[in-house]
Amino acid sequence: MPNESTHVDLLIVGTGSGNSIPAGVFDGWSIGMVERGVFGGTCLNRGCIPSKMLVLPAHRVREAADAAALGVHFDPARIDWPAIRDRTFGRIDPISSGGEVYRRSQSNVRLFVGDGRFTGERALRVTAADGSVIDITADHVVLAAGASPVIPDIPGLAGTPFHTSDTIMRVEEVPRRLLILGGGFIAAELGHVFSAYGSQVTVLHRGALMLRHEDPEVSERFTAEFGRHVDLRVGVRVDSVEHRAGEFRLHLSPVDGCSPDDGARPSEPTVVVGDTLLVTTGRRPNGAELGVEAAGVALDDRGYVVTDDTLATTAPNVWALGDIRNPNQLKHLANREARVAFHNVAHPEDPIRLDERVVPHAVFSHPEIGSVGETEATLAQAGRRFVVGRRDYGDVAYGWALEDLTGFAKVLVDPESGRILGGHVIGPQAATLMQQIAQAMTFGLTAEQVAREQIWNHPGLPEVLENALLDALEAAGSGG
Length: 480
Description:
Elements: E1 4-13, E2 31-35, H1 41-46, H2 48-66, H3 81-105, E3 109-113, E4 115-120, E5 123-127, E6 133-143, E7 147-149, E8 177-181, H4 185-196, E9 200-205, H5 216-226, E10 231-234, E11 236-244, E12 247-254, E13 270-274, E14 276-279, E15 283-285, H6 287-290, E16 318-320, H7 331-346, E17 361-363, E18 369-373, H8 376-382, E19 387-392, H9 397-402, E20 408-413, E21 420-426, H10 430-442, H11 447-452, H12 463-477
Parallel strand pairs: 1-2, 1-6, 2-3, 6-16, 8-9, 8-14, 9-10
Antiparallel strand pairs: 4-5, 5-6, 7-15, 11-12, 12-13, 17-18, 18-21, 19-20, 20-21
Helix pairs in contact: 2-3, 2-4
C-alpha cells in the first residue's frame, strides 16, 4: 500500500491533555493530531474519571457499614454492577466520541488514528489498523502521548486473560474472586471498589507496606486499614501464573528481607486462586515506544522525556507534557503543563515556566489519602530540620461525631521560617482537606498565619488541620 505524506504547522501526539491545545491563536494553523487508542486519553476513558465514578458507590457501601456505630442500620447493600458501569461509561463514551467528532469537523485539524513512530526530526510515521501508512512532518511538535501499563515478566502470565486498569472497569460482571498484583494507588483504589462491590479480593504486593511513596506513617495506617477489607499478602512475589478452566493460580514465595510486623508474609511457597487477575505494577511512559530519540528528544534513565521548565525538549521546536515526561503522572499537573505548552508554542519569544514546587495528590480508596509536599522520610534524607504537627480526627468535634478512630492529619513545618513543608491526611474528605494546605504552601503562608490569622468554622472537619498546625507551632516553640 503506497505511503501518503503531509506537512502541518503543529503536530500533537496524544489526545488527552494535548487536546486542549488547538484553540485561540492556533485557529489559523494547520494541525495534526495522532491517537492510537480512544480519543480523549487515559484520564477520561480508563483512568481518573471512570475510576472515581466507581469509587463513589464503593464509598457509600463502606459508609453504610460504618453507620452502625452511629446507631443507623441498613440492609446488606445490593450492587447493580451493570447500572454502575453503564452510568459511568454512558457519560464518558459520548464525551470521547463527541470530542473526536468536533476535532474532525474543524477545517484546520486532521486526526490521524494509528501507531506513530518518529523517523527523524519532527517527522512521524503513523501506521493505521488497516496497514496504511502516512508520513507527517511538522514545524512544531507537542508530545502528549501518556503512559501504558507495565506488564511484569512473570512465567506463564503472557497469553492469559489478565486485566489492567485499562480494561477492568468494563468487565461484564463483578469478579467473584479477584487477584490484584501490586501495591500502589491503582491497587488501592480498585481493590477498594471491587471489595466493596462483593468480590473476594486478594492483593499481592512485594513490599511490606502499601503506597510506599506516601508519608511512612500514612502508609502504615493505610496498610492496616485496607487489610481489614481485603486479603492483603505483603512481602510476596509471584513466581509463576497458571490459567486453566477459567481459573488463575498464582504461585507465591516470600521476598527476602521483607518481614512485616503483622506476619502476613508466608514462610514458604504458597498458591492463591482467583477467577480474575488485575495487574497494577506501574505505568511506563510512551516515549521509547514512539521512538522519540530518532527525533533528537532525550529520555532519562526511567524513560521519561527530558524537558526544561518551559517544557521544551532537547529537540528544537518540540515540547512535551503529561505522563510522557512527568513521573508524578497526575492529570491536574498535565492540565497545567498543557497551559504552559500552549503559551510557549505560540509565543516562543516570551516563554512561561512550569512551577512544580507544590503539587497535591490523592488516593481515593478507603481510607482516603490527601498529600502535598515533603514527607518525614524525604526531609530526613535531605538533612532538613522540621517539626511535626499531628492531630487525630477523633480529637476534633466533627471527627468525634463521625466516630472516626483511624484518621489523622499531620503537617511538617520549618521551625525557623514557619513555612509549611508538607501535609498529609488520611481519613474522610482527605483530598478536599489537603487542598487548604496546598494553597497555603503555594502562596507562602506560614503555619502561624494559617492556624491563627483566620477564623476556622466550628464544628467543621478542617479543624483537624488547625489543630495539627497548632501542634507544630507548639513543637517549634519548644525547640522541636
